């Protein structure tokens, strides 16, 4: 089986994808600078897979670090045959305070990774790259569910880096037919591996709903702030398309298979197609955890939309992939991770 290089390899989505790839029989090399993850992830991956992870600590903006990762792939598995580029900074609020850091890291890192892939691929071989894009590229969606041909826009610097990332990769393809690109537009990944050994470990106050709810349920935070209860949704709270992290990981395996077997690029939504409101998530979490999640209603946050969910048809048709796990699975697996690791990878 081919060897895949994962950038941002010890992060939340990459660590679950790493396991899914190993389970599907692929070989994996990882690179990460730990700017938003813990080296302990590697110990957990070893424990879960029974294999010592092939890993290089380094920054993807640094050509030499990337060269070391490709060399490790060459030495262990005869060469890297595709890259999944997860490495990025991802906090929307922070991106408006430090836009240049986001451009330098997310755009600079993508370009350096593409250059390294090109450097380490023979001239007659395809350049296969999977890119972590996001539903944020749809800006404020005009129509629901969101199809891949919906209008695109960026509402903050983070979103701009995802939109620009897709554009850079599309230009590469136009200039050189060897590039095979899968741009995956993730909706809202949540939950954890069912073992409870790896999961999302946000630093500081969580930016996303489910890790926040998890910290309330485990007693680290007093209550859940619900921003807005007058949205145009059945219960007035915002509706989003949450996708179980293991379904998302399987989506990467399917996208890589598509690049290897079909030899065609694609841009595709990875979501369930079903939205859940903030109140529905809080109730499902109470059920999964047996703990109360006290609520505090607060005004809307600027920029938030009523509802956002994917049309997952293209993913089913092109990749033969669809999400299988429901909100109860998402909450049960999140709770197992949170209750067994209340301080994340630090305890
Ligand atoms: N989690 C989400 O809600 C979500 C939604 C849509 C898209 N995405 C995208 O998916 C990707 C992975 O997200 P995640 O949630 O796993 O985030 P994460 O922060 O857990 O993982 C990103 C990893 O990249 C590493 N990293 C960042 N910059 C790096 C650099 N210059 N060199 C080496 N490593 C670097 C970090 O240390 C971290 O381990 C990101 O590109 C993110 O923008 C995430």
Brief characterization of the structure:
The protein is α/β, with parallel strands linked by helices and 347 residues long. It has helices spanning 12-23, 40-49, 63-77, 92-97, 99-119, 157-175, 209-217, 245-262, 278-289, 313-319, 327-340, and strands at 3-7, 27-32, 54-57, 80-85, 127-134, 179-186, 188-190, 224-227, 239-240, 242-244, 266-270, 276-277, 295-298, 307-308.
Written description of the protein model:
With 347 residues, the chain is an alpha/beta fold. It has a domain of 232 residues: NAD(P)-binding Rossmann-like Domain (Rossmann fold, 3-Layer(aba) Sandwich). The chain has eleven helices and 14 strands. The strands form four sheets. Strands 3-2-1-4-5-6-11 form a seven-stranded parallel beta sheet, sandwiched between helices. Strands 12-9-14 form a three-stranded mixed beta sheet. Helix 6 links the parallel strand 5 and strand 6. The mean pLDDT is 97. The site of nicotinamide-adenine-dinucleotide (NAD) has 27 residues, from helix 1, helix 5, strand 5 and strand 7.
| Beta fraction | 15-25%
**CATH architecture term of the domain at 3-190 and 242-272 and 311-323:** 3-Layer(aba) Sandwich
Radius of gyration (CA) equals 19 Å
The class by helix and strand makeup works out as: alpha/beta
The end-to-end distance, rounded to whole angstroms, is 35 Å
Can you tell me the residue ranges where pLDDT is under 50 for at least 5 consecutive residues? none
Bound molecules: nicotinamide-adenine-dinucleotide
How helical, in percent, are the residues? 40-55%
Count of beta strands: 14
Could you spell the SSE succession in H and E letters? EHEHEHEHHEHEEHEEEHEEHEEHH
